[in-house]
Sequence to fold (205 residues):
Amino acid sequence: MKTKVQNLDDDDTTEIELKDSIFGLEPRADLLQRVVVWQLAKRRAGTHKVLTRGEINRTKKKVYKQKGTGQARHGARSAPLFVGGAKAMGPVQHSHAFDLPKKVRALGLRHALSAKAKSGALLIIASAKAEGIGTKDLVRRLGRIGAENALIVDGEFDGNFALSARNLTGIGLLPIAGLNVYDILRREKLILTTAALKAIEERLS
Fold:
């Protein structure tokens, strides 16, 4: 499939051929969901924890004798039943990550790219560079191509461009090495530089 390569500085456009094996697939929602759930599970800290009965700082001495008091049988004050006691079956530290085959991850990335291409939300630009640091000027340049909420992917970002874009809440910058399904789908548009496009095709071919 063919698409236009736009220039942020002027109206000149050229055409480029996109590989159908990467950008021309029929997007599968179930596959995208699997990869997104895998990503979000992997990024969870898993550091939530409460004190167990063995860790609570209370006396372990039996409250009162077992029989003859007319009351219920109780042991240590660290039991969950008492105020200040431990939490019964509370959360403990553990990893939420699970395995997902590499082929499924790669296929999910292809389907995410194809979803953007099919919906017309994929833009190719010649380069992501700025002569100086100016957020207002960058907003104007991105507004010309309708990129108010977009993820911009490049091989290595120009310093002036990165500094100009860092205060824009609707714009995200991502190096090609960090390209992932979740970040692609959470933005309305995906903007790739020609350098990033070449790297993606080499990575997924």
